């Protein structure tokens, strides 16, 4: 039912084509290898190989598609694992249709789904029961990554961590959109991040 609903919603986007579906993670990997999509919408809760394992496997493949994770706050406690693995963002399962279409377009264009309020709630929900030793290691690693950046690059990273788009960062930091894109690219490289979501997570982690 969820797949049918999503396919119907996405079919309303004239620039979007649904090229395949799968009932589980293993099937998703096979479908991606055959169909070479630009974007994959990945549910977490699936039989056999779940969405977390499938996302991690997909992101290790050269030329991997962008991944949008489908989640709910109450059940998907390990969503950060998918984001750290390289997912480009997430959607709640009750997201309005137009926002779903916009999300696919954004990640296909290299952006990420980073609603500041939702990201904050999600991260808090996931890490609240984390082992103290793991948390300390995570904070130290994040601060080390941010330490690689110049002052201006760090400002851009902080803005990305707030969920701002390139256009919004351009206004916030008084630089052209082209310059923002160049800075974001350097930040991704220096911080060894696959996408903006991972930058946002490191920025959050560095705050301790």
UniProtKB/TrEMBL annotation:
The modification 4-aspartylphosphate is found at residue 43. Transmembrane segments: none annotated. SUPFAM superfamilies: C-terminal effector domain of the bipartite response regulators, CheY-like. Pfam families: GerE, Response_reg. Residues 142-207 form the HTH luxR-type domain. One of its GO terms (molecular function) is DNA binding. This is DNA-binding response regulator. PROSITE patterns: HTH_LUXR_1, HTH_LUXR_2, RESPONSE_REGULATORY. SMART domains: HTH_LUXR, REC. Residues 1-108 form the Response regulatory domain. It comes from the Bacteria. Gene3D superfamilies: 3.40.50.2300. Keywords: DNA-binding, Phosphoprotein, Transcription, Transcription regulation. GO terms for biological process: phosphorelay signal transduction system; regulation of DNA-templated transcription.
